[in-house]
Write a structure and sequence with these properties.
single chain
Length: 443
């Protein structure tokens, strides 16, 4: 879509934040189309779909426990810990004039088994869903049997007849590549120019074919889709349109509810829950936010975070155009070092849902990602990748907005959860480089 000057002039008048966004300034946008759970009656996914997704995860648990040692202790359940980060809260309170009310937690998807990022939820789930469909149709498995059989050579030989493709900036490619190769599929990952070399190397090491592009995420996914669908017996994992990726992410809400119960943390009108989710194409944060709304209702408040240079979902939701606009239409370059967040056009599937579930979006500058990375490592001894730090400013950003006053929310009893989306597989020398860079910014 090309935006004509007349339409842009109208949008600039209608949406006062648009000019600062185009000027690459950090902003906080509150979603005027946010709905109450009781009004979300026409969504393309449901609580029942989430429950079926959780059942599939459990059917595959014996296979995952057998094939991935980092899931064995949890009996094949792919989940991450929830940690309170009080020292980071102190550091943030010392650094900024405003203070964080309530408790501050980190949801450690940087430690998710298999792929070391939030993409292990959606990516692994979609491939497992496809594998189950193929195996059931071929009559080699039934839901009454143990899925540990998926480790057998006859299953790998069967899946080797099929191809899987995905377009990725990195982390989704890792999750799809690792699980697909483990099952025996021929898998190709189409990667954009900003994808890190170590991710390409790791994918090749795991048995995936990596196809590199000079363009951004949108170009990689378009080429990947076209090339994959041109092959016989091929399946494309479409990050812009996938219902299955979305449902794989949503299951996190069930697990989080149990973790909060175990920690003795209430979520109700007097004890609101705030969740801050780094956002690229919007599938992962969209799926998680949808799930959280289904589980916690109107007592959870979900906020996405995007780089100032890649505010794709923000522009799509603010204008109402969703995936019909991209950041380049507004003169924004989509160049960021927030790996996984460099997305110019939002997900068509997720955007229509997030328009009703997300409370707002704020943007963050790249240098703050590195600064926050160093601060978290120094205060808590936790190392995550730069894009995963984006949510750490969330409590301060939202507390200084009008959100709590408008919605009459008691912030002093709030629980804040920052979703750490990745980092476990980052090589030590890379992580040290991130840390030193953040340290130099502080100096």
């Amino acid at each position: 879509m090309s935006i004509d000057q007349q339409k842009l002039t109208k949008w600039l008048s209608t949406y006062p934040l648009l000019q600062p966004i185009m000027d690459l300034q950090p902003v906080v946008w509150l979603n005027p189309k946010l709905q109450k759970l009781s009004d979300m009656t026409d969504l393309p996914v449901s609580l029942s779909d989430m429950e079926k997704a959780e059942q599939l995860w459990r059917r595959f648990a014996p296979f995952l426990a057998a094939e991935f040692p980092d899931t064995t202790e949890a009996n094949g359940i792919v989940e991450s810990p929830l940690h309170e980060i009080p020292n980071m809260k102190i550091q943030l309170n010392d650094r900024f004039t405003d203070k964080i009310d309530g408790q501050l937690f980190l949801k450690r998807d940087n430690e998710l088994p298999i792929a070391g990022s939030v993409k292990a939820r959606g990516g692994v789930y979609e491939v497992l869903h496809y594998a189950e469909e193929l195996a059931k149709a071929a009559g080699i498995i039934s839901t009454e049997q143990s899925y540990e059989q998926f480790s057998a050579e006859k299953f790998k030989a069967f899946f080797s007849q099929y191809s899987i493709g995905v377009g990725s900036t990195g982390n989704l490619g890792l999750s799809i590549g690792i699980i697909s190769a483990k099952l025996g599929f021929q898998v190709s990952v189409y990667m954009s120019s900003d994808a890190k070399q170590w991710k390409k190397d790791l994918l090749r090491e795991k048995g995936a074919t990596v196809v590199e592009f000079k363009g951004d995420f949108s170009e990689a996914i378009l080429a990947g889709r076209n090339e994959t669908l041109a092959k016989p017996n091929a399946y494309f994992v479409d990050d812009e349109k996938s219902k299955h990726l979305f449902l794989g992410y949503s299951v996190a809400a069930f697990r989080l509810k149990q973790q909060l119960n175990d920690a003795g943390i209430q979520v109700d009108t007097e004890h609101p829950l705030f969740v801050y989710l780094p956002c690229g194409v919007g599938g992962a944060p969209g799926g998680i936010a949808f799930g959280l709304k289904q589980v916690f209702g109107d007592e959870v408040h979900c906020f996405f975070v995007e780089p100032t240079h890649s505010p794709a979902v923000l522009l799509g939701l603010m204008t109402g155009e969703k995936n019909n606009v991209c950041v380049q239409d507004f003169g924004i370059d989509n160049v960021t070092e927030g790996d996984g967040l460099a997305v110019g056009r939002p997900s068509s599937f997720a955007s229509g849902i997030s328009e009703k579930t997300v409370s707002g979006i704020y943007t963050i500058e790249d240098h703050q990602l590195f600064s926050l990375l160093t601060l978290l490592a120094s205060s808590e001894g936790i190392f995550i990748e730069p894009s995963a730090t984006a949510g750490l400013l969330g409590p301060l950003k939202i507390q200084t907005s009008d959100y709590a006053d408008i919605n009459k929310i008691p912030m002093k009893t709030a629980t804040h959860i920052v979703w750490a989306t990745g980092g476990a597989l980052v090589p030590n020398e890379e992580m040290d480089g991130f840390y030193q860079r953040g340290k130099s910014i502080e100096e």
